[in-house]
Amino acid sequence: MKTAIQYCTLFLSICLLCINCGTKKENIVFDANNGGLFLPDGFGAVVVADSIGPSRHIAVKENGDIYVKLKITSDAPGSVALRDEDGDGKADIIQPFGKYVNDGIFATGMRIHNGYLYYSTEKVVYRQKIDNDLVPTSKQEIVLMDESDQWHIAKPIAFDKEGNMYVPYSAPSNACASFINTTGTSVQQAGQYPCPELVNHGGIWKFKANAINQTQKDGVQIGTGLRSIVAMNFNTSNNTLYAVQHGRDDLHLLWPNLYSAWQNAVTPAEEFFEIKEGNHYGWPYSYFDPLTKQKLQAPEYGGDGKKLATDQSFTNPLAAFPAHWAPNDLLFYQGDQFPARYKNGAFIAFHGSTNRGPYPQAGYIVAFIPFSNGKPSGAWEVFADGFAGVDTIVNVSDARYRPMGLAEGPDGSLYISDSKKGKIWRILYKEDKTKFNNTALAGMEQRKNTATNIKTPDPIKDIIQIKYSKVGQTIYQTNCTNCHQANLKGDGNRYPSLIKSNYLNDKSSFRNLIYNGKGNMPGFKQLSSKEIDELETYIQSVISKQ
Questions:
Q1: Are the CB atoms for 361 and 395 separated by under 8 Å?
Q2: According to a count of CB atoms within 10 Å of the terminal CB, is the N or C end of the chain lower?
Q3: Which region among 2-6, 63-67, 75-79, 494-498 has the lowest average model confidence (pLDDT)?
C-alpha cells in the first residue's frame, strides 16, 4: 500500500513538473501610460515591440510566440516572429522570416490553425507546419492562388471546425460603375445591372483548409454583395462566420447634387454581418444609412439619398459603425482573463478613415460589441483609443499609429498590431474581475461622445478650415481632399502625394490631368480653365507653406 502511495505521489509530482515546464512564468510590467492608449478602468497595456515595420494581421501561438504579417513590397522577409524570453511582456527576440514574393502592400493574413501557420500576400495564401521553434522550418505550401490583379485584393483568412478555410474576393470597384471621366450625372455613372463583378468578386469563398494549390474555382461562394472585407472571423461559440464590410466611398465627389460633404463624411455605415450561404448583403445596389438605419438605393442605381433600397431582401447588418472607419480585423474573445462580460464578444480594429474631409478623419480605435447567443446584446463601445496620438486627425499622415490586427494570447490577453510602424500592444485586466461594473466604462463612453475621431461631426462647427485662396480651396476640398488629403500627402497607399508632382511644373500637363483624369483618377470636365488654374495656385500655396 505504501509503495502504491509513493508511486502515485511521484507520478503526480512529475505531472506538475511537466505542467510548470510548459508554462512561462510572467511578471508583466505595465507601461505607465498604457503605451499611449486609453482603456476602460482596470485594464493595462504593455508595448511588446515598438517598431517591427508596417504590419497587418497577427497571430499568437499557444506558448506565447507572436507572428506578424508585414506590409512590404521589397525582397525582404515578409513575416516576423517574436518571443518574450523573460516573461516581462516585451519581445526579446524579433526574427524576420519568409521566402516568398511580396506582391503588394495589402498582404494581410496571419492565422494559426490545426498546427499550421497560415499567412497571405495579396495573391497567395501559404502555410507552414509549426513546432517548438520560433521560426517555422517546415516546407512552405501554397494553399490558394488568386489569379486576378485588382483593387481590394487583401486576403484575410478564417477557419471553421469542419476543416474549411474562408477567403474573401472583394470587389474591384467602388460601386460597379465607371470611375473615369465622371461629371456627377446619373447617365455617366449608371451602375451595371446585374453587376458583373459579383460573378467572381464581391463575396466570400469557402475552401478546404488542408488542400494545396487551390484556385478560386476550387471554392464555393457562400455570400455575395460584399464590397470589401478585411475584418472576418469565425465565432466558435455558435459555429458561424462574421465579417465587417468596408462601405462605399465618394458620395459627394461623384454626386454633389445629391450629397453634401457632411453626408459623405457620415454615410454609409461600415456594416457588421453574420455570413450565411446564399445571402445577398446589398452591394453595389444599396448601402446602409447609419442615421436613418435603413438600406437606401445607391445613386448609381437610381437612388437620391432618401429612396429605400428597391430590393428589401438584402441582408441588414447586425450592427452599423460610422462611415469610412475601415474595419480591418475582427476577433471573438474566448478567454477568461478579461471580465466575464467580454466573453464571446467581438473586438473590431478600425484602421481609420482617409476620406472624411473637410471634417476630421475618424476611427483609429478598437471597438467592442457584447454578444449573446450569436447576436449583439448591447451597443458598440470604445475599447481602446489613443493610437493616432493627436486630438484632431486632419490627414492620415497625422496619425502616429493605426490599429490593424487583433489576436488573443493563450492567457486571454489581447494583442493589437499597428500598420504604420509595427508597434504591438498587449492588453490585460489588472484588477479583481468579480468587482468589474459599468462605471469602469464611463470614461470610454465620454470619449465616444466627445473625441473628434469618434463622435458624429457637427455639419458647421467641425469643418476644418484651411486659410488659402477661397476658390482653389473649395475646389480642392470638394474634389481632391478625400484622396490626396488636406496636406496633399496622400494616404500612403492608393493615393499619391502631390508635394513633388511633376504635373505642377507644367501648366498644360496639369490642366490636361485635371480635365481628363488618368488611371483611377476621374476627370473633372465640369471645371473651367480658370478654376483649374485656381486649383493649381491653391496647391502651390499649400506646398510653399510646408
A1: yes
A2: N
A3: 2-6
C-alpha distances (whole Å) from 358 to each of 297, 521, 531 are: 25, 19, 19
Lookup: cell for 40? 476602460
Cell numbers placing 23: 508554462
CA pseudo-torsion sign 491, 496, 500, 506: negative
pTM of the predicted model as reported, rounded to 2 decimal places? 0.86
| 169-184 pLDDT per residue, tens | 999 999 998 644 444 4
What DSSP line would sit under 214-225, residue for residue? B-GGGSEEEEE-
pLDDT for 488: 86
520 compared with 20, residue with greater pLDDT = 520
Any residues with CB less than 8 A from the CB of 367 and at least 6 apart, and which?
321, 347, 348, 350, 380, 381, 382, 383
Tally Cβ neighbours within 10 Å of residue 42. Answer: 17
Q: What angle do CA 460, 463, 468 make, to 5 degrees?
A: 125
Confidence of residue 479 (pLDDT cuts 50, 70, 90): confident
Q: How many helices (H) and strands (E) does the chain have?
A: 8, 29
The whole-number pLDDT of residue 2 equals 44
User: What is the CB neighbour count within 10 angstroms for residue 503?
Assistant: 17
CA–CA dist 515, 497 (Å, integer): 19
> How many Å apart are CA 206 and CA 139, to the nearest integer?
24
Angle, helix 529-544 to helix 470-479, in steps of 10 degrees: 90
What confidence score (pLDDT) does residue 297 get?
A: 98
Residues paired with residue 58 on neighbouring β-strands, in sequence order: 68
pLDDT above 90: percentage of residues in the chain:
70
What sections of 282-435 are H helices per DSSP?
none
Q: Which three cell numbers stand for residue 436?
A: 468589474
DSSP states along 146-168: -----SS-----EE-TTSEEEEE
CA distance 494 to 405: 20
Euclidean distance between CA atoms 175 and 179, whole angstroms: 9
Reduced to 3 states, what is the DSSP secondary structure of residue 59? strand
Asked if 272 and 345 touch (Cβ cutoff 8 Å), the reply is: no
Q: What is the pLDDT of residue 1?
A: 44
Q: How far apart are CA 309 and CA 227, in angstroms?
A: 16
Beta carbons of 217 and 179 less than 8 angstroms apart: no
- The string of pLDDT tens digits covering residues 14-44 is 333 333 334 457 899 899 899 999 999 999 9
Torsion angles phi and psi, residue 6, rounded to 5: -60, -40
Residue 342 and residue 208 in contact, taking contact as beta carbons nearer than 8 Å: no
Q: Which residues pair with 381 in a beta bridge?
A: 368
Q: How large is the average pLDDT for residues 135-141?
A: 96
The pLDDT-based confidence of 475 (bands split at 50, 70, 90) is: confident
Closest to 365 in 3D by CA, of 458, 241, 265, 452: 452
Contact (CB, 8 A) for 57 and 84: no
The answer, yes or no, to whether residue 140 has pLDDT greater than 90, is yes
Spatial CB neighbours of 21, under 8 Å, sequence gap ≥ 6: none
Strand partners, 169: 203
